[in-house]
Amino acid sequence: MGDSKGGPIYRGLGKIPDRALLMFAGLVYLFLYAPIMVLIFFSFNSTKNTQVWTGFSTQWYGELVRDSSVLNAFKLSLTVGLTATAIATVIGTLTALALSRHTFRGKTFADSAIYAATVMPEIVVGVSLLVFFVAATIPLGIVTIIIAHVAFCISFVTIVVRARLSGMDRSIEEAAQDLGASPVQTFLRVTLPLILPGVMAGALLAFTLSFDDFVITFFVSGVGSSTLPLKIYSMIKFGVSPVINALSTVVMVTTMILILGGSRFLTSREDA
Amino acid sequence: MGKGGRGWTLRLAGLLTPVTIWLGLFFLVPLLLILAYSFGTSGVYGGITLGFNPGNYLKVFDPLYLEIIVRTLVIALTNTFLCLLLGYPLAYFITFKGGRYKNILILLVMIPFWTSLLLRAYAWVVILNGNGIANRTLQFLGITDHPLLLIFTPQAVTMGMVYSYLPFMILPLYAALEKFDRRLKEAAQDLGASRWHTFWRVTFPLSMPGVIAGSILVFIPSAGEFVIPNLLGGARTVMVGNLIQSQFLSARDWAFGSALAVMLAVLLVGAIMFYVRKVGTEKLEGV
């Protein structure tokens, strides 16, 4: 710190903002975590009360597992998430390859469209897709949910894979081709293994986004197809209950595991 | 690779066809469709007649809707400002005082960032409702002797939003401050600037790209938010997002709903263009 050059009095004064900053940071972290912690804490409460601790129990998790509508919602979320992730990862990776390896007419437009898809307010994407599906007379259900999820996941996969490609040494690919590998061989044996951490990170990101999405799904799901977030929403609308706390805990822990796994793929960039 | 050769063109076409079809058909076409609908006329039974009817846009000036739009802007701006107020010192703390804990501290910001907004809003429903922890604490402290109406107020919505969007502010601020050359700070202080001066004349101006990126990332989704006002605002704190939702799902005035959605999208494009002019495109992608 620059202030260490000052006299003792000045140095003493300089510590005050540091302490204040430390305290402030602590309070912001408390603000970020206390509500989630309270939520998780009361999912283990022994009575239906979500406010007063009465003893430890896992009964709400038991109730959760026995609730067939929750299980069905979970299955639907899983099916949608896995299908949408598979499609979006393939398309996003191809797009990243095109954008980082080629220059072509309309590239600026392609860039902007992909970028716009990541920042467009979800409600606008949701209602425009609803209008589109109704106009095209495509019945709302699992198919429209998957189509919508792929549409918003492609851009994120593209951005993540592209970041990985831009950090890649292209001379390795050139060497492979000089040694007689065909373009397909080069891709499968050299390029793909090198960008795989990026592809995996993109896939995990896509799955998380799909699994957690509420707003867009809300508009394109129609009646009868309830993903987990939609199920949670209707439960909250019905009233606060420790079962929702338990379900929230499960979803949050799942998301965190996926993201921590994903960030490991991303940080392994150097040693890949 | 023969650049410009036939094989090259074919390969490029192969790489780009899937994305063109998917994003073209399921992102761009729907947007154009609501643009067309926004100038149409809604029938009594929810059907729509296309045409050129600017009435849907003029409806916005109806005092009933104007109030909702003004409220949305006020809440979104308040939220952005509060996130900056809470987020900047934290980002500053992580960058300059985090030391060897820096990675853990930033991970602790990432985790809520990745937790579903719906669940984070629910956490506040639990805290703020009639016999929730907030009310119990207030009564315990003797501030009030009966439960106050904390939920279903604009303040509850703002609270839920700050809670939900704070990480969206901290991450770009941290990215901007990380790139900051610390020697500039030292130079300013060696030349006699106080810490206060150094901050306002050197550090803060150089972190502006992060401030703008964070503000856009917070402002845009909060202006379009409908889950948080739905759960924490109730019927008295309706925002544009709720208005759009009700036009499509209950009022069935799709033309007006489309006009509102188009305006929201245009507001966003305006904000992004402002950002790109000021800072350039590469920064936002790092978020």
Can you describe this structure?
The complex is a heterodimer of chains A (272) and B (287). Chain A is an all-alpha fold. Helices cover 77% and strands 0% of the residues of chain A. Chain A is built from eleven helices and no strands. In chain A, helix 4 crosses helix 6. Mean pLDDT of chain A is 85; it is low at 1-12. Chain B has 287 residues and is mostly helical. In chain B, 75% of the residues lie in helices and 1% in strands. Chain B has helices spanning 6-38, 55-58, 63-97, 102-114, 117-128, 133-140, 154-178, 182-190, 195-206, 208-223, 227-233, 240-249, 254-279, 282-285; strands at residues 41-42, 48-49. Chain B has a two-stranded antiparallel ribbon with strand order 1-2. Chain B is globular. The model of chain B is unreliable at 283-287 (pLDDT under 50). The interface between A and B is large, with 82 and 86 residues.
How many DSSP H or I helices of chain A? 11
Q: Radius of gyration of chain A in whole Å, from Cα?
A: 24 Å
Shape assignment of chain A? globular
Number of helices of chain B: 14
Helicity range of chain B: over 70%
Low-confidence stretches of chain B: 283-287
Strand order across the biggest sheet of chain B?
Answer: 1-2
Q: In angstroms, what is the radius of gyration of chain B?
A: 24 Å
Count of beta strands of chain B: 2
Biggest sheet features of chain B: 2 strands, antiparallel
Give the oligomeric state of the chains in this entry, treating copies of one chain as homo and distinct chains as hetero: heterodimer
Please outline the major beta sheet of chain A: none
Strand-residue fraction of chain A?
A: under 5%
Summarize the helix and strand pattern of chain A as letters: HHHHHHHHHHH
Distance between the ends of chain B: 34 Å
The average pLDDT value of chain B, as a whole number, equals 85
Descriptive terms for the model:
heterodimer; A: 272 residues; B: mainly alpha; two-stranded antiparallel sheet; 2 strands; disordered C terminus
